[in-house]
Amino acid sequence: MEPVTWVFAFPTNDGKHLVNDHFGEADYFDIYQINKEKVRFFKRIQNKSPEEQGHGDPNKAKNIGAILKKENVHVMVSLKYGANIFRMLNQFSCAKVHDNDIVLLAMKIQEQLDLVEKNWNMGENRKMLQFVEG
Question: Strands 28-34 and 39-46, how do they pair?
């Protein structure tokens, strides 16, 4: 039986580290496919969402949501989130992390996919995911 593969979006400007800003401020989203057997970089997509018209602009959340849905993303992973996090939790699991190395984070997340599945299954009642990073 094929293991369940989860799709993660990591906000980045350099492809190695998470952007040190809100998720939606990154130039790119690196998409990873992760299951219990492997961690796979899938692709880099450009963040083409428009600039916010104000803090927590719902149009920015809508645009980023559409970009990520097109890539079948399940989980957003970031150091920081803005006011739109509550809109995003309706569509995705969201994880707030403290480490900024994308590859290391992906490997640590791989060890905790049971948390991802549990959170995902909560639907619109999802809470912010907290991974053990140590």
Answer: antiparallel
